[in-house]
Write a structure and sequence with these properties.
It comes from Malurus cyaneus samueli. Keywords: ATP-binding, Helicase, Hydrolase, Nucleotide-binding. One of its GO terms (cellular component) is nucleolus. This is Activating signal cointegrator 1 complex subunit 3. By secondary structure, the protein is an alpha/beta fold. It has 32 helices and 26 strands. The strands form six sheets. It has an eight-stranded mixed β-sheet, sandwiched between helices. The chain has a six-stranded parallel β-sheet with strand order 9-16-13-10-12-11, sandwiched between helices. Helix 24 packs antiparallel against helix 25 and helix 26 packs across helix 27. The longest helix has 22 residues, at about 645-665. The chain is globular and about 70 Å long. Residues about 1-75, about 340-415, about 550-575, about 575-590 and about 855-874 have low confidence and may be disordered. The protein binds cytidine-5'-diphosphate and magnesium ion (MG). Cytidine-5'-diphosphate binds near residues 123, 438 and 462.
């Protein structure tokens, strides 16, 4: 049962020449009555709304092909050449049965909401319906937004393949990359990308249709987009260039959208796609929740595999590290071998010492073995795949090689003859590895996917019959008051738990094993709160301002987004954040703020870039910003050592690394730039040596991170060039080390950008108690924070520092620390200072009563070594 379906949706043959006549007929007959197709075509051109429907809709099928005149006339039906396998797989998707209903609703209404269980085919099929009905052309594309980058990339690939169209036509755009061309007609993108586009062109005139996918996730950008689009759609209508808006959601909480009269004056129609869900039996654990849920998952999977009939297993864990660790345990317990001749290689690969071997290092005598087909080959899913986005998956240290996990795995060793085909799935997994879960497992094996939350709604895995749900999720938490964020593992919501359970019933009746008791389940919140109620507002405000939305008060934003919940945010907090980022102080947006908003990075970093047009600092700040965005440049410096031997090894790596860096930067003035210097030095030295994998491995750098940084530097250079047309930067990965003047300038730029992340060491005489020893006081937190042991400034303890971020482990630690000269603070961060009368001229000092730096009005400092750049606005 389970496997049959998987085979059908697998459809490997790349370019099946053309589907047969019958299939074309078969497709056209039930789904494309000419009435609806014609109104589909007429609709985008002319009047919208009530007038569109043709009451007497003829039921005759359309001719399968259209003459080439279709391009200039209102399109009727754009044929798509799908392979037989694709055709067959499509017909099994519930949304196919609703194509006519969906298209009629879209033809007749400017805004439509489509609700359907995950896996019903919304994301992959609705864009195709629209394409076939002639909604896409070179002058107006179909845009689809996804909250996750993986979804944007993998769905564009999937749809291109299904439609037999090239990636020039069905393309994707995520923050730093994409394959969009002039020919693009279907464009998948992240919600952030569309928001940026609205900034440049408020009416989104490039698009005929916008689909907001996964709206139930309530990601912040999705919420804002819906708010903005609720205004853009009527505006486009007025201009006679109607835009269709389609909101797609799993069946959660659509009332938030439909019943919100501030959002849509006319209630949009909601189309329910029948999910054809099979019953899922839910089994709760009797015991109260366990701390070792990962171990419990392992035991549960073992039991299912031994005792229950065929069918795939899907395990939900919280993060990438856990996913890998469980995958390893399972592979050890139920090894899968393609055939016996390879067992020697396999056992070699499986010994812990070989875990980090790359395929390049395999002995030449074994060249023929296709390592990618071994589920046991750890190099296949190295942790290095993280690409450093601030995704929840990326949280936590996950370089665990799981060497000494001397658990009771021996006892668990399989008595089942069936091997387990174990695959990891998380959002930063490389797309080609992710795609594996959609393929049928090798014959004679059982599929077991160990996943994070991505498998909850974004991606549907075929053939799953058993779900093991740990009940937890890793989420970024924003402290309401300070904006400090940390990743925490918490209980999921009831809605999420039910979604996860639902994954078991896609192809046949299934079972969901919840590793928590029903009493605990009853205590879960019903839904998790929309992100917009939790995120720091600073970037939001800046974005809104750049959109020329006047008076960006939090209330203004509420009105724009029209979600009741957002009113939870305090005005006071907003005001404070506004003060803290000097670029936002003036309303309307300052030229600096406008420039900032055009950069595809967070405001703090954008401010650094915008201020770097002096002393030729731009290439360096671009590098620093890229490095800060990518994060985790170093392989294992930041990891607490497991053993003493390992500690020594880490130390050795670190020493070698610092040595290597000096070769590039000399002993020079870069020291005070602190950890940011280390980042700059790492990139500088690496590029200087040609950025090879060997160099990176030798010096403990993450090769992938280095490549990503190079890529980002190119992207940001292009972005800067397009803002400052005379900057004339060119991309050269190699750099000279900065001069002393440049380092000073860079440090000031970093201070200006990360200003609200200023911290001051608590002096001996101010010590309240021991917990403040060597501690810093930040502008945002009451509690003591410390310089992270991995920082180069850990021992130096400068009086003032700025940090990139605070992470909470045993203590609150600052990471990405750089030293600040006290006299810069009044010049660059006046809101943090209070100014005394200029009687004498003492250096600035800290005023504990006021909690601020005390100094004179700093006319002398203002322009010393610091000037605002000549920013150009296009
Ligand atoms: O968006 P929705 O959750 O409604 O469904 P979808 O993402 O369009 O997926 C429809 C079907 O396509 C599912 O059964 C997926 O397993 C399958 N699919 C696939 O086989 N390979 C992909 N790369 C993407 C989807
Ligand atoms: Mg979807």
């Amino acid at each position: 049962g389970a496997n049959k379906r998987r085979h059908s949706s697998e459809s490997e043959p790349e370019e099946e020449p053309s589907s047969s006549e019958e299939e074309e007929e078969q497709k056209a007959a039930p789904e494309e009555p000419s009435g609806s197709a014609v109104s589909a075509a007429a609709q985008p051109q002319g009047a919208e709304g009530e007038a569109g429907a043709d009451p007497a809709r003829p039921k005759a099928p359309l001719p399968p092909a259209v003459p080439s005149t279709a391009l200039c006339q209102p399109a009727v039906f754009i044929p798509v050449d799908r392979s037989a396998e694709v055709q067959e797989a499509r017909l099994k998707l519930p949304i196919l049965a609703e194509e006519q209903v969906v298209m009629e609703a879209i033809n007749e209404n400017p805004i439509v909401i489509i609700c359907g269980e995950t896996g019903s085919g919304k994301t992959t099929q609705v864009p195709q319906f629209l394409y076939e009905a002639g909604y896409a052309s070179s002058s107006g594309a179909i845009g689809i937004t996804e909250p996750r980058r993986v979804a944007a990339v993998s769905m564009s690939q999937r749809v291109a393949k299904e439609m037999n169209l090239s990636h020039r036509v069905v393309s994707y755009q995520i923050r730093y990359e994409g394959n969009v061309t002039d020919e693009t007609q279907i464009k998948f993108m992240t919600d952030g990308v569309l928001l940026k586009e609205i900034q440049k062109d408020f009416l989104l005139s490039k698009y005929k249709v916008i689909i907001i996918d996964e709206a139930h996730e309530r990601s912040m950008y999705t919420d804002i987009l819906i708010g903005l689009l609720s205004r853009i759609v009527p505006l486009r209508h007025k201009k006679g260039l109607p835009l269709k808006l389609i909101i797609m959601s799993a069946t959660l909480r659509v009332e938030d959208f439909t019943d919100n009269t501030r959002l849509f004056s006319v209630k949009p129609p909601v189309i329910q796609v029948d999910a054809r869900q099979f019953p899922v039996t839910v089994h709760f654990n009797k015991k109260t929740p366990l701390d070792d849920y990962s171990g419990e998952c392992f035991r549960k999977v073992c039991k299912i595999h031994r005792m229950l009939p065929a069918g795939g297993i899907l395990v939900f864990l919280t993060g990438q590290a856990e996913v890998h660790s469980l995958c390893r345990r399972l592979r050890k317990a139920f090894p899968y071998q393609k055939n016996n001749t390879c067992s020697a290689v396999q056992s070699a690969v499986c010994t812990p010492l070989n875990v980090v071997l790359s395929p390049l290092l395999f002995p030449q005598t074994l060249p023929k073995i296709d390592l990618s087909s071994y589920s046991v080959v750890p190099v296949d899913e190295g942790d290095e795949d993280r690409d450093g986005d601030s995704d929840a998956d990326a949280a936590g240290s996950d370089l665990d090689l799981d060497l000494g996990d001397g658990d009771s795995e021996e006892d668990e060793k399989s008595d089942s003859s069936l091997p387990l085909f174990v695959l990891p799935l998380y959002s930063l997994l490389a797309p080609e590895k992710q795609a594996k879960v959609f393929q049928a497992p090798p014959a004679g094996t059982r599929l077991c996917v160990v996943a994070t939350n991505v498998a909850e709604t974004s991606l549907t895995i075929p053939g799953i019959k058993y779900v093991v749900d740990c009940g937890k999720v890793k989420k970024r938490f924003y402290d309401r008051i300070t904006g400090v964020s940390s990743f925490r593992v918490t209980w999921i919501s009831q809605a999420s738990a039910n979604q996860r359970a639902g994954r078991a019933g896609r192809t046949e009746p299934g079972h969901c094993y919840r590793l928590y008791s029903s009493a605990v389940f009853m205590d879960f919140e019903k839904f998790s709160a929309p992100e917009i109620t939790k995120r720091p507002v600073e970037d939001l405000i800046l974005q809104m301002k750049a959109l020329n939305i006047e008076k960006v008060s939090w209330e203004g934003l509420c009105a724009a987004a029209a979600f009741k919940v957002v009113a939870l945010r305090s005005q006071k907090q907003t005001e404070r954040l506004k003060q803290q980022l000097a670029a936002k102080l003036s309303c309307p947006i300052s030229p600096l703020g406008r420039v900032m908003a055009t950069f595809p990075v967070a405001p703090r970093y954008a401010k650094m870039l915008a201020l770097s047009r002096q002393q030729d600092c731009l290439p360096y700040s671009i590098t620093i910003v890229s490095a800060m965005t990518v994060r985790e440049l170093f392989e294992e410096f930041d990891r607490p050592a497991v053993s003493e031997a390992e500690a020594a090894q880490l130390k050795g790596k670190r020493a070698r690394f610092l040595q290597m860096q000096k070769v590039w930067a000399g002993q020079g003035p870069m020291q005070k730039l602190g950890d940011l210097m280390v980042m700059l030095g790492a990139v500088g030295a690496c590029e200087y040596s040609g950025c090879t994998r060997e160099f990176c491995e030798e010096n403990g750098l993450r090769y992938k991170a280095m490549l990503e940084i190079r890529h980002l530097r190119g992207q940001l250079t292009t972005a800067v060039n397009s803002v400052c047309t005379d900057a004339g930067l060119y991309v050269d990965p190699k750099m000279q080390p900065p001069t002393e003047a440049q380092v000073t300038c860079l440090r000031q730029i970093v201070l200006a950008g990360l200003g609200d992340h200023l911290a001051r060491r608590v002096q001996a005489e101010e010590l309240l108690d021991d917990k403040w020893k060597n501690a810093y006081k930040t502008a945002l937190l009451e509690d003591p924070v410390f310089i992270h042991p991995s920082s180069v400034l850990f021992k130096e303890l400068p009086e003032f520092v700025v940090y990139q971020e605070i992470v909470e482990t045993t203590k609150l630690y600052m990471k990405g620390v750089s030293a600040v000269e006290p006299e810069w603070i009044p010049a660059l961060l006046p809101p943090y200072c209070h100014f005394g009368k200029p009687l004498e001229n003492p250096p600035p000092s800290y005023c504990p009563q006021r909690g601020r730096v005390r100094c004179h009005r700093p006319s002398v400092f203002y322009r010393v070594g610091w000037q605002l750049p000549a920013v150009e606005v296009d």
